[in-house]
Amino acid sequence: MLVLDAAETRSALPWDGLVKALGDMFAKGCVMPVRHHHEVEVPGEADATLLLMPAWQPGAYIGVKMVSVFPGNQTRGLPAIHGSYLLSSGKTGELLAIVDGGELTARRTAAASALAARYLARPDARSMLMVGTGRLSANVIEAHASVRPIREVAVWGRDPRKAEATARELDLKGVSVSVATDLETAAREADIISCATLSSEPLICGDWLKPGAHLDLIGAFKPTMRESDDRAVARASLFVDTRDGALKEGGDIVQPLRAGVITEASIRADLFELARGTHPGRTAPDEITLFKSVGAALEDLAGAVLAFEASGGRS
């Protein structure tokens, strides 16, 4: 049995290969039951979340990820996300690999947004605003830079010191990195805005989005959370990773749906339709696009299989 730690998982999942693996998996599909989502009480602080996400390709691979999200870890200097991925043979059920779940989650999440950006962000997008300073932030920036000609990146966080730390962590050739001190100003200038936070209140206002902007919403994975306001959702062409997930769990979609700002028909396409070519994605240079992801077990399976096979494993 293969065991991949965080560093080994990262090495086995280069952006170009991972984005392609996700695109192929969305195009081909797999069996993906509804994930288990449980609230876990943590005395004296915000509730944690336990996620169990199974998926399989009949006759090939079976996988399940167990992930915990502890918001209170931010005050301890610890990652909010911990987890492991168990990859088994789809022929015999034999356990083939244990993959670091935190690293797999961070990279496949970023790669899914980069895959969406291939269809939704302008081909000439050069400037990016990263809202959030957690583990995902550097991954998201690197992933987008692998699919679009990003030359300027601004990082914004509630804690400027964390934003500075994230900016220092980045080492992208030919890319200028700065810390944004005014969120509105930075958002109005950006070609791509990515948000990866645990915010329960809107951070990005629709009136800030310039023509042709692409808004990538990664955080706010519960119906009670959101990173954009109703104006942003109303102005933009809406896309999601999976319809079932976004309509059930993504607060940026669920809340405006309940308020009557949009309808289910407002969602133009999901990543299945984009990857299969049944929807073209962006259709005009000045179109404002919005992509909401909540994560899907398919993405984990694609990443785990890639990491396993890249490390010499065989089913």
TrEMBL record:
GO CC term (a single one) = cytoplasm
Top-level lineage group: Bacteria
Enzyme Commission code(s) on record: 4.3.1.12
Which Pfam family would be a valid example here? Answer: OCD_Mu_crystall
The record's listing under NCBIfam families reads: PRK06141.1 (NF004793)
Phylogenetic lineage? Bacteria, Pseudomonadati, Pseudomonadota, Alphaproteobacteria, Hyphomicrobiales
- Name it: Ornithine cyclodeaminase
Molecular function per GO: ornithine cyclodeaminase activity; oxidoreductase activity
